[in-house]
Amino acid sequence: MIRSNQVLVTIGTACTISAVGSTETYQALVAGTEEFLPLAAFDAGLVDVDPNAESAAHAMRWASGAQAGESVTSQELAQLHGDALRANSGIRHVAGVRELAPRVVTDIAAPLPHDLETVGLRRLAGLRYDDIRGSGLKDMHGLFQDDPLLSPSLQSQLFAYGALGALAGLPRSLSELVPNPFGFRVVSATAFGGMEALGQWLRPDAPLPESGVPKDTFAVRLAHSLGSHGPALVSTMLAPSYSISRVLKNPALRESLRSDDVGFMRVPQTPMTAVGACASSLIALADIAPQLLFDYPGFQKPQMVLLTAADAPLQPRYGILEAFGGGALMTGEKLAAKNAAHTDGMQRSVHDSLAPFDIDADGTVVGHGGSGLLVTTLEFALKNQLDITSIIVGWGQSAEAGGKAHFAGVGFGGENALVQALDMAFLGHGYGVSDFHYLAAHATGTRTNSKTDLGTAWAGLNGAAQRQRFEGPLPRLFVGTPKAVGDGHTMGETGLKAMSQALQYVLGRPAPGVPTLRRLDPDLADIAGHFHLQPEPSSGNTNGGALCVTQGFGGYNGAVALRSATPEALARYVCDPSELASYLEAWPTIRAEREKRERVARRSAKLALAMTERHRWLGLE
Fold first, then answer.
1. What SS3 state is found at 76?
2. Which InterPro entries match (predicted)?
3. How far apart are CA 4 and CA 447, in angstroms?
4. Which residue from 128, 170, 374, 448 has the fewest beta carbons nearer than 10 Å?
């Protein structure tokens, strides 16, 4: 048996923003509930929702206009805005881009819905100039000017919303749980470091520079810097610090930051960021996990980690940054050709044009997205009575070039990441290959990757089974993917998005299947027989296991294994008996309060700002 300080757990559920909308909106779509349109209207700024109400559909009021403050029914909302809300969500055609060829390589993308890419996300997060100026973070207002040339890039805003939104899962302020900010760590991932920020310097109404970039090299460098520092922005918003100008005028401010731990200043650790591949967020977890468990004289071990990831791969005017290239993307022409070839009249809409494991899989769809999730040890969670939503029983990473240049999933050896994760689950936690039931697949939407996706997972399961001396048929894992729901492919963020859905599965809640699956790719006939693929979502399993396996450019692979947190599961570990008994007695109340707290926070305005003001360490006033 391993000790509770050697076990990692997730706290609360992930906070996300994507082409479908915010966390609550996405889950409503997966579950098929009546709340989807009301929550989409909240994301769009059309309505305010009573966050304390059990159902958003029964607690709406118009947010602006002549009817501001008046109640609105679901029927009225659907009649007035239903078509527009659906059309501006998920994977869709981008109007007016064909004239911009050859700069634009596709007319199908998964940008953020509604007006979130312009001012909407800053409104939803509370990052507008007036919001910051009137808050405890007023000294940072220069970073949040209304002028797009001075505001944080879209990528940085995605980091701020997803990362800070995850703090809603905490029952007490972060500064109380982790009094010394040196015990907190932001761990992040992205596939696009700062290139997206370049677009912030190209005003939408301005002609393109001849070279494609501004001549002001300082502006270009600054744009790169601002774009790649989303994780640093999150740390800065939480950090106990002052501007240099204020400290120069009042040196006593610096003295107020001295730590009780002699010789240290009361400031957070540097964010750790993994950049470059679809598996970046899972690799980031694999890199930080040992630090949470490591014990060495003098090492400042983090007590809690905020795992976050964000990508914004679409430049203004929807040029695609160097990565996939046009050949690996879905386009309107490809979609039309696929539909024309179907003689049975079955037409595939643009919304379901990213079709992994289907004969129609002919290219991926790039989109924007951001996520955040809290990770700590079982010991810390029990001591502080935090809601444990899953047990991380294994993780792994590997790299295999296989002569494949930078294309994903074509070489050999990618299954090593999954074998590592399953080895940990078996040897450390006592869970074998038969204890996992859901596979959150990479699912790029190409036929090549569909084969290697399932092939790599199957090879990993078989490799682990051999090491465990497992006899008999392997279980058929239910396969799901967030991408097929309308999110598109968010590259480095895609592993964390998959992990957030796997988390829903082990909580016993609806988790995506492959809703775009119509005709199974005949090339998958043999390998698909080892898995369970269906369009409908899974209902989840409160005593189940889930695997996240992601392949990335250059052969960077990551895998994470989760198990449901149950009283029986926690009893597997060496814990303080009195703490465990106290926790189990209070757990139903802890969970109910956490669920309400997350719902209220994520259905209220100014999520990121509200979380910052509640959870930041002292020193910013």
1. helix
2. Thiolase-like
3. 43
4. 448
